[in-house]
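Subject: Sanity check before I submit

Could someone independently write out the structure tokens for this chain? I want to compare against mine line by line before I put it in a report. The sequence has 669 residues.
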Amino acid sequence: MARWVVTAGWPYVNHMPHLGTLVGSLLSADVFARYLRLRGHDVLYVTGSDEHGTPVEVEAIKEGISPEELASANHERLVEVLKGFRISTDNYTRTHNPIHMRFVQEFYRKVYDNGHIVQKPEEQFYCENDQLFLPDRFVKGVCPVCGYEDAEGDQCPSCGRLLTPTELREPTCSVCGKPPRIKKTTQWYFDLPNFEEFLKRLLEKSETLTQNARSFSLQMIKAGLKARSVTRDNKWGIPAPFPEAGGKTIYVWMENMLGYVSAVVEHFKERGEDDGWKEYWQDPETNIIFFIGKDNIPFHALIFPALLRATDDPYTFRHHIAATEFLMWENQKFSKSKRVGIWLDEALRSLPADYWRFSLILIRPEVKDTSFSWEHLEKAVNEELNDQLGNLVQRILVLLNEHFDGEVPEPKELSRTQISLMNRVTATREKVEGYIENYRLQRALVSIMELVRKCNSFLSLEEPWHKVKTNRQEAGNTLYAVFYALRAVSVMLYPFLPFSAEKLLGYLGIEPREIGWSQIGTSVPKKHSVAGEHAPLFFKIDIGDVKKKLEGNTAPREEAEELVSFEDFSKLDLRVAKIVHAERVKGARELLRLDIDVGDETRTTVAGLASQYTPSQLRGKTVIVICNLEPRQIYGVTSEVMLLAASSKNREVAILTPDKAVEIGSRVH
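---
Independent answer below. Compare away.
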């Protein structure tokens, strides 16, 4: 039995993640963790919500709330969605929690004390329009290495080269699209080049990394590694623990990877075993596997192990990297702003979780970018799940109940073809093991479904419903062989389709909690009975109906509409008001502070309108506000009322105003 820490790339919670995020990390890691558990290994599956950094901060500004409020709300929503997908984490946590934050600060203080953090003055891009230093991924431009025109400031998604923003040609601010200027600042850097020899030896001697990950990383070392910035000028994040680093936070990509460790620390702290995590992260025999997208290989193959080494603590370097290519949506990149793709919450509202799990793994981008489509979804569910697996289950249960009183017949003198089908179970199990252990989950699932199709063909060829009338034993032998294979299928499918596999196991008279991988290929117990009554395992879908559930488009939407009673609506104190003063909120590029006359007094609000209106355009404007909302602190300003505005699909915002002169303070009914 081996010990494993299974991890998945931490999803950002500025928005709900999409299907590509699910299959590339969370779902793939879940399938692998479930498989390892069935094999009897010691497994901890950990990951969590990536809450810090500019993406969350920007979205919070747009919504007029604090980053912590946005991150907390989205984290809670995501937790419920992942439960709906049966993602079997032992600890799904978050980066904005005291244990992680303290661990990161202590970790980097140790790296600093060991002499591997250096302070450097630098010139960084600064957006005058947004009044913000631009972190890596908020600068876009032309890659200086391969010429890709949409490279990001920390890495080129085309050639994979690690970059710094100032290396980009024709840079623009990814928020407003305007060219930034250079401004001086100071940052703290991790001395990555100092670990080139260590990393080279580690990669060359690794028995766990794939050839692709090893070759790619060695090539990056050959090209020359550069020091990596550890700090940023963001306000939202973990405060940097270095002397004279006041006001700096840890760069999100240099702290979220440490969450793989802190999540295990947290797991054991909650159990009262403060040092239990060390058996998993500081035992050289422990396996650590990262399920990530291909663009994140450098962070996990180079930067993360170098950081661990820089502490001088005895971390395990028995690392595995299972990196996928990109999943597209109908040949386009998933994009919330462009309304391209399906997001996880709406996916669950439209179809059962296992339908998505199956169709996603069936097209998992393991060797090249692949494209998800409506046609693929329909074919996967209707032709594979329903017509093949569902039909096989229905046939075997009906035949056993109608002709053998629901009991699996005892075999006698099995034929060569019946033995061949049973031998195919062993061959399929071995293929599936090889594929999964080499992170080829798509091929593993295809192999299982090939066995399902073989069983259906075998039944059609043998026709036990006819043979039972003339040769009951021969018909019984056929049903035994097919049941033997179907039982194996139900176990092998469990990591992929936990909902359906548990239901199937129940139909087959097997307790799901008692299954193990070693049961595949063993004899069926004597007098084993199956369920007498059962509902269809799957149903066919109509893509038109699915699209209707998604309201005719594939954009992420808020939760389903909830009716508000007239009594609740009447509690709102809506008034006509007047903006008497407007100014920018310091340090927040989208926010304006507004002083508003509501009739009997002047109140303050904070609104994310800076990209839509200048302060002078708002002064003197008559508006509609809600006066009796609970006040909240946003960037140090108390927001006491809410300004009503409408936003279009292209994010144009218009303030609501009366169409004729109305006395300030008048109630809106």
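---
OP: Matches mine. For the report I'm noting this point. The chain has three domains: 3-116+191-324, 374-543, 568-655.
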